[in-house]
């Protein structure tokens, strides 16, 4: 049984439900479940049932919620998405919700409609706010399955120039690329292969998961969604999908050549994220030696980005998140991946105290 001071932080995304169990101000457990909201709001019920199976006592905890799932195309508009997600979360037995509304603070589920614009896609702000408190100056680099957040931190405050997704896309603070679900045709129009610059097919033949699966960098625990062709995620299936992107079959080149192709795709993605990172850091005048804070299932790219930028690299899990002493390795690993759920739990617990 958990003590009174327990909080579950929820991050309701369009593809995953992420959650953090905070007990006595320390991270005890973190988990993620698939939640394909574009297939229907019922997908959230399925993911929540899995959460209840993991944490049967979760009705004893306070619940802090942030979200990005309101962008799913199952909803007519974002306001409807915020309201429906809040309503669905509030249906869980014994749960009293506090919805994260950024600078506005916290609001109850029945007020979601009035404050939907503050609640919508504010998960990055929770992570950045906690990071700023812990680090002071730096840039949060949260590379997820679908998107990348690049948030400047200055003097223990979030120095983002935008708050909405639209504004952050304009400023470079939101890069709509991730390491799992991004179609490869979104990364570049041409790919270097066998000494030539090949045009890329603008079809959803392969995703970034194929790239990082072949390079060996993608943890299978984050490879939760079907491949573009619905096929196998083994090396043969992965090479087949990569080959289609440039009009070939896997048998037309060697295994080494397809690995080289995957690394070329990787190079295009890191170049784009690196360019936007420099833009964000310069806009906010982040000191040149201030660190990057890595988060997300694509954290494995951040060390390279830091080296290119000449900056130190910190880890959200190790340097920001308040893990329980002696926390198991998997807790730290998932805290890194599910940073917004950790952040919203910690912020709520701090303010409640």
Number of strands: 14
Q: How far is the N terminus from the C terminus?
A: 21 Å
CATH classification, class level of the largest domain: Alpha Beta
Arithmetic mean pLDDT: 95
Beta-strand content bin: 15-25%
CATH topology of the largest domain: Nucleotidyltransferase, domain 5
Order of helices and strands: EEEHEHEEHHEEEHEEEHHHEHEHHH
Summarize the main sheet: 6 strands, mixed
Count of alpha/pi helices:
12
- Shape estimate: globular
Question: Summed up, what is this model?
Answer:
The chain is α/β, with parallel strands linked by helices. It has twelve helices and 14 strands. The model has no long low-confidence stretch (mean pLDDT 95).
Question: Care to describe what's here?
Answer:
There is one protein chain. By secondary structure, the protein is an alpha/beta fold. It folds into 3 domains: 6-124 and 317-352, Nucleotidyltransferase, domain 5; 137-179 and 271-315, Nucleotidyltransferase, domain 5 (2-Layer Sandwich); 193-262, no CATH class. It is 37% helix and 19% strand. It is built from 12 helices and 14 strands. The protein has helices at 42-54, 78-90, 116-119, 123-135, 165-171, 208-214, 235-244, 255-283, 302-309, 316-319, 329-337, 339-352; strands at 6-12, 16-23, 26-34, 62-67, 97-100, 106-107, 138-143, 148-154, 157-158, 174-175, 190-193, 196-199, 292-295, 313-315. It has a 6-stranded mixed β-sheet with strand order 3-2-1-4-5-6, sandwiched between helices. Strands 7, 8, 9, 10, 13 and 14 form a 6-stranded mixed β-sheet that branches. A hairpin with a 2-residue loop joins strand 8 (148-154) and strand 9. Helix 6 (208-214) crosses helix 7 (235-244) and helix 8 (255-283) packs across helix 9. It starts with 5 loop residues before the first strand and ends with a helix. The relative contact order is 0.16. The mean pLDDT is 95.
């Amino acid at each position: 049984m958990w003590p009174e001071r327990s909080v579950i932080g929820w991050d309701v995304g369009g593809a995953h439900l992420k959650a953090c169990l905070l007990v006595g101000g320390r991270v005890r457990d973190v988990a993620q479940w698939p939640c394909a909201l574009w297939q229907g709001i019922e997908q959230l019920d399925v993911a929540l049932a899995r959460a209840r199976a993991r944490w049967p006592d979760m009705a004893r905890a306070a619940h802090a919620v942030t979200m990005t799932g309101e962008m799913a195309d199952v909803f007519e508009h974002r306001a409807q998405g915020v309201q429906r997600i809040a309503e669905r979360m509030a249906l869980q037995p014994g749960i009293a919700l506090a919805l994260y509304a950024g600078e506005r603070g916290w609001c109850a589920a029945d007020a979601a409609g009035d404050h939907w614009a503050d609640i919508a896609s504010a998960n990055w702000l929770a992570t950045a706010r906690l990071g700023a408190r812990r680090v002071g100056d730096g840039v949060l680099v949260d590379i997820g399955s679908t998107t990348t957040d690049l948030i400047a931190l200055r003097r223990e405050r979030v120095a983002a120039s935008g708050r909405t997704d639209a504004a952050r896309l304009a400023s470079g603070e939101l890069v709509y690329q991730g390491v799992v679900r991004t179609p490869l045709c979104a990364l570049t129009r041409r790919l270097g292969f066998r000494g030539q610059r090949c045009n890329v097919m603008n079809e959803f033949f392969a995703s970034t998961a194929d790239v990082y699966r072949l390079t060996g960098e993608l943890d299978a625990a984050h490879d939760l969604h079907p491949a573009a062709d619905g096929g196998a995620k083994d090396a043969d299936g992965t090479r087949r999908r990569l080959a289609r992107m440039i009009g070939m079959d896997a048998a037309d080149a060697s295994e080494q050549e397809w690995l080289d192709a995957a690394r070329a795709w990787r190079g295009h993605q890191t170049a784009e994220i690196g360019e936007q990172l420099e833009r964000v850091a310069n806009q906010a005048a982040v000191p040149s030696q201030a660190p990057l804070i890595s988060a997300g299932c694509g954290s494995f790219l951040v060390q390279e980005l830091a080296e290119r930028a000449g900056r130190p690299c910190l880890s959200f899990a190790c340097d920001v998140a308040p893990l329980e002493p002696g926390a198991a390795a998997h807790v730290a690993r998932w805290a890194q991946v599910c940073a917004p759920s950790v952040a919203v739990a910690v912020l709520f617990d701090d303010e409640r105290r």
